[in-house]
Amino acid sequence: MYKFTIVVPVYNEEENLERVETELSNYLKIASVPTSVLFVNDGSKDNSQALIEAICERNEAFEYILFKENKGLSAAIKAGFDYVDSELVGYIDSDLQTSPEDFNILLKHIDTHELVTGVRSNRKDSFVKNMSSKIANGIRRAFTHDGMDDTGCPLKVIRTDYAKRIPMFRGLHRFLPAMIMLQNGRVTQVTVQHFPRIAGTAKFGLWNRLLGPLMDCFAYLWMKKKYINYDVAKSSK
User: Residue 117 has what pLDDT?
Assistant: First the structure.
């Protein structure tokens, strides 16, 4: 029985998937809790699906779901959250600019928190990408007051029951800590490693990293105003 599932969103990453299999297979051997992997193929148009199916045939702890068409990173992450049945769920990008080994660092803190997110140290990205991310993070913090320095870090661990209650919306991957806080959950951040992209191409440009998050902040404010929390006192079930 797996306690932790790693969701891996994939969109046209055929050049990276062999390395993803190797890195995640190696991590499963040292994972601090029993762990499985779920690929979410976001309608890739290259050879990613054939490679994913071959990987899952070779590895018992690997599974996949395939979208009929491309729906974006947020949809892939949310679908992964909805699909898993393990106690804990996390995700990592298939570009492997973060290390699966660092999940063990995050897992050390999950007993006292509902979400633990990585903060990329010494980022190996371009100046434009780094600056746009810093500006976007500043804008998001001003709107959400989540106190997080790097919500775009693709390395997180969340209690699954909280993850499943996150509503679907574009850009949700930038607001995961804030959405857990709306559920009165506890969040924290931990420094993790960061590496340059070795293969494939980045899926986000300046609009996605800067202007898109600004628009999403207004959607978050509306959601925060309307959000409902409830606690069941008693049930016959």
Answer: 94
State pTM to two decimals.
0.82
Q: What is the DSSP letter of 102?
A: G
Structure-block tokens of residue 152: 């775009």
What is the 3-class SS of 168-215, one letter each residue? CCCCHHHCHHHHHHHCCCCEEEEEECCCCCCCCCCCCCHHHHHHHHHH
Domain count of the fold of the chain:
1
Both tokens assigned to 205: 């440009």
Q: In what order do the strands lie in the sheet with 115-120?
A: 62-66, 35-41, 4-10, 88-92, 155-159, 115-120, 187-192
For 115-125, how does the pLDDT look when each residue is reduced to its tens digit (9 = 90+)?
Answer: 999 988 765 55
Select from 149, 214, 160, 222 the least CA-distant residue to 188.
149
Q: Tell me how many degrees the CA angle 192-39-189 measures, rounded to the nearest 5.
A: 20
Domain extent for 31? 4-226
- CATH number for the domain spanning 88: value is 3.90.550.10
